[in-house]
Structure formats: C-alpha cells, structure tokens
C-alpha cells in the first residue's frame, strides 16, 4: 500500500510496531524511502496522539492488528487490546484532529458471525466470531459504528470499514499462515505441514483489496462522502473460494522442484471456520470494483515474488512491476 500510494503522489506517515518478522516486506522493498515511519504501539494513546497531531492526515487507513487466529488462542488479551482498544484509541485521537476528513478501518472477513452457510455474507449480516481473533474483529466493527454515529457523522467525517478475504502475496512472512508457511517450507526444500486441508477460504492477491481500499478512500474524500460510510466487502470471485488442499497443490505446482505437503495434527484441535465467502456486490455496483485475478493467478504472482527473493532480485522493482501491471489491467485507481 505504501508503494502504491507513493506512486500516486501521496504524502504518507506510517505508525506501527517494528517489523515483526525477519525478513519483512517493509525492509526488503525499501518502503522507508516513501514513508515518514513512526515506530509505536496503537495501544499507547499518548504516542499515537502525538504522531497523528504531527502528521495532520486528511485520511487515515487503519490496518494495525494482531492478525493470526492461532496467536489469538495463545494470547487473547493482546488480540483484544490491539484489535479493539487499539481501534478505539485511533478513533478517539482522530475525532480530535481537525485535519481528518475520512477514516477507513480494515477489519476482516472473519468479523461476521459464521454459520458455515453456503451463501456469501453481505455487509448487513450480523457481526460475531467464535475464536478470539474473529470475535475481536467483530468487536472492532461495532466500535467503529459507535464512533461514527456518536462523533464523526455530525462532524462531517466519513468513516468506513473494509473486509477482505484471505490475502496472499509476495513478502508475507507471518508465522501460522498458509502461504508464508508454504514459501518457507519450499525455500528450505522440505514438505509443508498443514492442519486442515478441507477448509474453504476466499483466496485473493493482496493488490485486489488494496485497489478497493483506494477506490473507497477516494469516495470518502469526495463531495458525496457520506454515501460511502459504512461496511464494504472486497472478496474474490467465486472461483477463488477453494479448499486449502487445492491451494497448496497449486503452490507446489508453481514452485516445482518436487515441492509437496502433508497433513499433520488434528484439524479439530482449535476451532476455525471451514466455510466462509464474501458477497462484494455493493463494491461492484457502487465503486466499480471487481476482482481481476483468479486464485491461480494470485498463487502464481506470489510464487514469482518468492522465487525472485530466492534469486536475490531487486524486490522493490519486482513489487512495483506487479503494482504497475495491476494498475494497467484495472485503471480505475484514483
């Protein structure tokens, strides 16, 4: 997102913890050249307030989160304090910053109360979540709605939330996440261990929802901004709702060299949804946003990036080239 915003001429301030993995995308693509980077914790209210006051942003795009389901079982309090109170902190700071005109809070497709239904979830469906991570995202949605109704609507600040599917792409090294785990295994020439091969997820390349966030952000800064406040789904096309086993087969085939996987452990050890789809009709009709890539293209682009990493390529150039190719294919970006 930082590279894409920089290409569009934005002045960017970032507020985040230090990169949580080594290696990490921020360092590998030299994003510090594009961002006034502030290292801090969104649970630290004074530090967050000072950073926002100095940046004087027109729009805030909130992505900070504890984002791993299994980690939320291990440490639920950090998950809730980051995803719920961190969001409340940011909104409270933003309501006192006169320069802010719009806020976009990115939550998760897992914010919905998942009934394991075959129908895709729409923006008005009930918030919920069985595990601490999913529940914290449903809570964050409710916090945003309360701040929007209590403070921002009357102040003329447009506030929206965005919910994407299982996002994949080059440079993600997060532990306990399928595609990064696969890339680590294949780079090390060992089999990938997976827990639940039958779980179905909406897989999408990272550039797909980012395109949606940019389109929505532009509307939130426009003349009819209030019409775009509220929740938005940015899920992939129906063909991208695939079981884990099919995705890892596609990853292994793209990687080549005998890459393989095996099931380990009990898939019922920790509860995770087995079926979850998003309905993105609202974004399609009101924003003109539609997915570009099939899940197989998303897999291929991801493997291409990690192979470039293995080869010691210029990863900033590789990432910029993927962004430019996407922009050429989908020119509706602001």
TrEMBL record:
Gene3D superfamilies: NAD(P)-binding Rossmann-like Domain (3.40.50.720), UDP-galactose 4-epimerase, domain 1 (3.90.25.10). It comes from the Bacteria. Coiled coil: none annotated. InterPro entries: CDP_4_6_deHydtase, NAD(P)-bd_dom, NAD(P)-bd_dom_sf. Residues 35-208 form the NAD(P)-binding domain. NCBIfam families: CDP_4_6_dhtase. This is CDP-glucose 4,6-dehydratase.
């Amino acid at each position: 997102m930082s590279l894409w915003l920089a290409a569009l001429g934005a002045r960017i301030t970032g507020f985040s913890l230090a990169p949580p993995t080594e290696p990490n995308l921020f360092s590998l693509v030299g994003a510090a050249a594009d961002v006034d980077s502030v290292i801090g914790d969104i649970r630290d209210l004074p530090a967050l307030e000072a950073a926002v006051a100095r940046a004087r942003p027109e729009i805030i795009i909130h992505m900070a989160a504890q984002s791993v389901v299994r980690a939320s079982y291990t440490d639920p309090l950090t998950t809730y304090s980051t995803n719920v109170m961190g969001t409340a902190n940011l909104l409270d700071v933003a309501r006192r910053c006169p320069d802010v005109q719009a806020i976009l809070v990115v939550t998760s497709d897992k914010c919905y109360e998942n009934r394991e239904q075959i129908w895709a979830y729409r923006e008005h469906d009930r918030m919920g979540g069985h595990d601490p991570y999913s529940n914290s995202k449903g809570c964050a949605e409710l916090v945003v709605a309360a701040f929007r109704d209590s403070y921002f609507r009357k102040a003329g600040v447009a506030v929206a939330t965005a919910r994407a599917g299982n996002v994949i792409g080059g440079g993600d090294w997060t532990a306990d996440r399928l595609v990064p785990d696969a890339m680590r295994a294949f780079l090390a020439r060992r089999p990938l261990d997976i827990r639940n091969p039958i779980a179905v997820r909406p897989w999408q390349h990272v550039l797909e929802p980012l395109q949606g966030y940019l389109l929505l952000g532009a509307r939130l800064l426009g003349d009819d901004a209030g019409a775009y406040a509220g929740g938005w789904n940015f899920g992939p096309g129906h063909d991208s709702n695939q079981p884990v086993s099919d995705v890892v087969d596609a990853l292994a085939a793209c990687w080549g060299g005998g890459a393989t996987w095996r099931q380990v452990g009990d898939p019922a050890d920790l509860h995770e949804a087995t079926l979850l789809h998003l309905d993105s009709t609202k974004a399609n009709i009101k924003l003109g946003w539609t997915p570009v890539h099939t899940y197989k293209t998303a897999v291929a682009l991801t493997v291409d990036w990690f192979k470039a990493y293995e080869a010691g390529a210029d990863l900033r150039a590789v990432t910029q080239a993927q962004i430019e190719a996407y922009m050429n294919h989908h020119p509706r970006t602001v």
